[in-house]
Protein 1
Amino acid sequence: MNAWRSLLGTLAGFFPPDLSPHYLRALLPPVAETIGMTAGAMLLAYAVSLPVGLWIGARLPGTRVLAGLLAGIRAVPDLTLAIFCVIALGVGPGAGMLALAIYYAAALGKVFGDLCRTADPAPLEALRAAGASRMQVALVGMLPLKLRDILSYGSYEFESAIRASVIVGAVGGGGLGAELVGTLNAFDFQRTATLILVLVALVSLFDQLAVVLRREPRWLVALLPPALYCAWRFWPPSASLAHAASAFAGMLPPGLDAAAWRRLPDLVAQTLGMAVFGTALGAAAALPLALLSARNLSPVVIALPVRRLLEALRAVPEVVWGLVLVASAGIGPVAGTLALAVHSAGCLGRLFAESVENVRREPLIAVASTGASGVAVAAYATLPLALAPLAVHTLFRLEWNVRQATVVGMIGAGGIGQALYEAQQLFFYRRMMAYLLLTWVLVVAVDRSSEWTRRRFRWMALAPEEIAS
Amino acid sequence: MAPPLLRVHRLEVRPPGAATSICRDVSFDLAGGERVALVGPSGAGKTTLLRALNGSVAALSGRIDLAGETVNPSATGALRGLRRRIAVIPQKHDLVEPLRVYHNVMAGALGRWSDAHALRFLFWPLAAELGEAQAALERVGLGDKLRARAGTLSGGQQQRVAIARALVQRPLLLLADEPVASLDPRLAHQALQLLCRLAEDDGIAVICSLHQPDLARQYFPRTIEMEAGRLVGDRTRDARPQTVPAAPAMRQERAARLA
């Protein structure tokens, strides 16, 4: 009871947000830094992932190794990668930018590779028949054929990158994230609220930008010079790159002492528990919200406000919910679980609603024509037909939440993430490296078992754009 | 003389979004238990007429009376009451494939069940209810499929599950929209034979749209012909006895057995 009262009391402290012109003006530099970091990182990511994607698409020698490497990098949570870069390169936007660049190069590399493999085989066959090498087929065949797709799929990652850049900033990567942590540490919650609003606005701005770019991918060229400037501006000095090499050497070989080994099962259980309960709570909340917002089940007056609510829930990333909840509900896995649940409810709510809207109409009509009520049609036709896509979305969200459980752990929600963060703060880099490897193993293990489950029940794969969201 | 089961009077139907009326000035009566084939080229308005009869589309003008009550799709409660008494067998087998066969069969009872009853049956079916589903399945020759997943059945089997669902509904009138369009000729005969025999046993009136006139003549005592949205023919064949003939394949089998 008291805990709830203190939670509500602290949450009330976030209102009203500090919207004074003075503070908003002071936010311009961190906002510019966040946008700059993101732009530079995406440029670097494109520059690396385009040739890598083509290489994989063309199945040139070493494709398997390269694809494995990309999968390995994608299994490292973005915030973990950022901590790594901050240690190696020192606090500042340079570290944040590189962390984002590495993460999105791996993500885009895989998408581009998959896209290149879907290229129309006939023209490629013609090129091969004319004696072109595999490299030439990739450059003059696949690239022109798939350029439009590559550019438009790449823009899907924009919105997600700006969110990630705030997260990365929170551990020392500069920009809005650093500002956010600063306000929370100073108990200046009204300004935290301002920053969350700014973030939501920024994410929706980039979302709009991505929509425009998907329609007119040529406009990306106009973004090239400013992005190049940002990459140059935030590029870490060569001295710190040398420092990075020696810092990295200091993390090897990874090792844990006996006490840390004994704590390990608890840490793993905490992280997995946050992921599982966060996903379950999120899915449980998402289902009714999805039914209320589905166009084919719910009247517009209800569906529209529920849609807006879902958008607001998912516009704020898990870490930011985590920061707010750790500040108000206290340190521990409960705050982490709630943070994952709130964001998952927003994401799953929209995906569930789409699944419910996309079920085949004929069985629905057949059940309705027996004189069944609306509830009975939903229970006997709509939901059973939507069950498989719902399960797939939930499993994908679970995979994602295992990564995010380590991330919210770092800001005080416990589990492996917190242990990793503490090791870094105490300069126990070999221990930190061990936790990093364990996180990676955990993520890969959950991904594999989720994939096995999906195959076991023959739940079909989803379209890439559904996964991307 | 008793009033007819169904009276359609000067019906005009224009589905939402259509520029012109699909059915014009359609009038006919149907007695209880009567079986009618609705024939005509595709686009003649057969499907639209059937949809108007179960209240899926509203009539622009004219009226439809079923058992003395006027069909009014705008009143939801009345519409559910009407649909409970009219069963529909659609063109494509459109079962809810992830559910079990007994769920699909007993979906026919949803119109008379409360929501709480429907939800309970979904997870906890009682023996009596399963018995009813089993009886209906035995009548369509699928007695061994009670607990199968609907998605694992063949097209012809799914069609028969749809017929079992219609039987469970205990309707006064059965509407079938091209029920044999997706079946090969032998299965088509079997399906129509089954449909007509069961309807005759239960005293259910049938309106069945078909595009093969020979099938219509063979299985239906009365044929209504549509063209460009109008009724152009209404023939009742009295000369021959109005019983259901055996399907040709079965006749051959019987002949083979006798020989």
Protein 2
Amino acid sequence: MENFTPISAFAGGLMIGGAAIVLLLFNGRVAGISGIAGGLLAPMRGDALWRIVFLAGLAVGPVLYSLATGEAISIDVTSSVPALIIGGFLVGFGSSAGSGCTSGHGVCGLARFSKRSLVATATFMAAALITVYLTRHVFGVLS
Amino acid sequence: MTRVIVAGLAGILFGVGLTVSAMINPAKVLGFLDLAGNWDPSLAFVLAGATGIAALAFRTILKRDKPVLSDGFQVPTVSAIDRPLVWGSAVFGIGWGIVGLCPGPTFSTLLQGRWETGLIFSAMIVGMAVHRLLRRVVSRNQATTIEAE
């Protein structure tokens, strides 16, 4: 557990929750990333720009963080190319079919005490834990 | 226009939060998901912070008649626990366990100049589009079947 970083993790979590609060309080929208992105695949008039700007903000945030703190951001990817493609596809397909991802179900849904989101969160957490167990400790592939 | 600016600021705050918490790093996420390995429980603190503060605030916010800048809250109203919710979430979880990035952090990596996460991003968008396409085809077929009957 030498990589354990509970304080920065909690602080970052408060910011993520804060962003969800701002979006709901001012715009009445749920900060579910897969939902916000999915809405752009069949955009409705007057409903696209805020989505684009929010998603652009997600990408700009880390850049501003680096500029402000001078810290480099670690992004370590160890998966093989086929794993990146298959995994990425499943993330998109599954979050679309399940109507949400970590942010929509895990943060906003649980914060509204939605039973649907509780089931979704328990399901994707379990599936992810089992997948990592199988790929790292049983088959020793993909990682 | 104000709403668009607020959305942008919320997006930036979200992106900074993903960076500070290191959810932007696939290795960190996979370390959290690897219970049998060198387990790093940090990301449980991300969820506790994010969901905790949101739960405290959402209660008060949703008691309002409407949001500050728009005419109504657009929160999900579906309450049925149906099959797509469960199998979709399971499929998403499998993908998350393979790449270590969920949709939010995938967007946050886009300006970091990394082809690997660009590849994950492209595959993710294709996955979303394919699901939407299939759903449209399936619901059209069901409609035709009902008509035929």
